[in-house]
Amino acid sequence: MSALPGECPTREGARPVTPFGLAGMPALSRSTVDRDESVRSDAERLARRWSEARLVLVDPRGRTPVHRGGGAPRAEGDGYALAFQETTPFGAAPPEAAVLLGVSGGDTYWALRVGPDEADRAWEDLRTVGALLDDTDAGLLTAAVALLNWHDNANFCAACGSHTRRVKAGWARDCPGCGREEYPRTDPAVICLVHDEEGVNGEHVLLARQPVWPAERYSVLAGFVEAGESAEACVAREIAEEVGIAVRDVRYLGSQPWPLPRSLMMGFAAVASRDAPLRPMDGEIEEARWVHRDQVRAALAAGGALPGLILPGRASIARQMLEGWANPPGH
Q1: DSSP β-bridge partners for residue 55
Q2: CATH assignment at residue 119
Q3: Percentage of the chain modeled with pLDDT above 70
Q4: Is the pLDDT of residue 118 over 60?
Q5: Which of 3, 148, 191, 245 could hold 9 in an S-S bridge, CB 3.0 to 4.6 Å?
Q6: What family, per the record (predicted)?
Q7: Residue 76 falls within a domain, yes or no?
Q8: DSSP readout, 30-59?
Q9: Gyration radius of the chain's alpha carbons
Q10: CATH number of 267's domain
Q11: How many other CB atoms sit within 10 Å of the CB of residue 298?
Q12: Residue 18 has what pLDDT?
């Protein structure tokens, strides 16, 4: 019997095994918002949309007011929802510091950087509540944090050094000195789940921890793409640099924005020999080890943590990668 495309041939009568993918849509990739580029340079339409808009406030630490209720259906425990604010206290027209997030379900959404008012509301960040928001709120907060972080670090023109100003409802900056226009920056990064050579998807996954992480917290390996480098080449280089082993069969899984401060995480899988000695990079990797699938499954079943093994949180694409690997199709 021939295997279907993408499946591994098996003995007669056995169920074919499909190479694993992401367990689901990464939490911060979810969105229902139409960004509506056409309105960004239309001052009249922007003013009209501002007066009836819902406003997302974000403090310098990337936190926003939230309340319990709603939230992502797949999340365990109580979900969260953004606590939107009225635009009236901030003026009749959108202030220069406001950024247009887009339109969803007939509502227009803006975001604004403010100082926190913790006496009145609960403020949380993407790491804490990103996976507990519904698709609309998750997309809104991810875009808001990404845009506002970029503006915080793009005040001066890279060509002439003049102070730039926000234009196009916060989706660009204009330099009055030389006329240069700049757009939001995103830094490409790879994150790779390396498994061993047993079967199609392996029986062990390579996990590592950085020195600055809490004890017992582990994740898959990641790093930034360098200039003139493909994402696949970056995977091979980063794994070799961080733990000293070679990988093969690099394949793409999916991506997720990670605006902390401005990354796009591109998820990959790769295969390596478990016999190769691991050599953690000084200053970058505190420890690296192979973990059996059963232990990963047990940690996931326990909510993401067991004594000695704390997995990435639900807001990270790493969690979807590990869940997909631990319970692949056909198993």
Answers
A1: 85, 110
A2: 3.90.79
A3: 90
A4: no
A5: 3
A6: Belongs to the Nudix hydrolase family. NudC subfamily.
A7: yes
A8: ----B--GGGTT-HHHHHHHHHT-EEEEE-
A9: 22
A10: 3.90.79.10
A11: 13
A12: 80
Question: Model confidence over 132-176: pLDDT tens digits?
Answer: 999 999 999 999 999 999 999 999 999 999 999 999 999 999 999
Give per-residue pLDDT as tens, 38-81: 999 998 989 988 988 999 999 999 999 999 886 665 445 578 99
Provide the edge-to-edge strand list for the sheet that holds 181-182. Answer: 165-167, 172-174, 181-182
Q: Residue 180, SS3?
A: coil
CA dihedral 187→222→235→297, nearest 10 degrees, is: -130
At 133, list the tokens.
């928001």
Residue 248: CB atoms within 10 A of its CB come to 10
Q: Write down the residue that tokens 């060509």 correspond to.
A: 159
Q: Domain tally for the chain?
A: 3
In one-letter notation, the amino acid at residue 201 is: N
Q: Which residue has the tokens 């794994």?
A: 239
Which residue type is seen at 327?
Answer: N
Which pLDDT band, with edges at 50, 70 and 90, does 8 fall under? very low
- Residue 3 above 80 pLDDT? no
Distance CA 224, CA 292 (A): 27
**Average pLDDT for 249-257:** 98
- Cis upstream peptide for 261 (omega within 30°): yes
Residue 17 binned pLDDT confidence (cut-offs 50, 70, 90): low
Q: Which residue is it, tokens 């067991």?
A: 306
Query: Residues 138, 263: one domain?
Result: no
Q: Judge contact between 46 and 106, C-beta under 8 A.
A: no
CA 126 to chain centre: 9
**Beta bridge partner(s), residue 165:** 174
DSSP 133: S
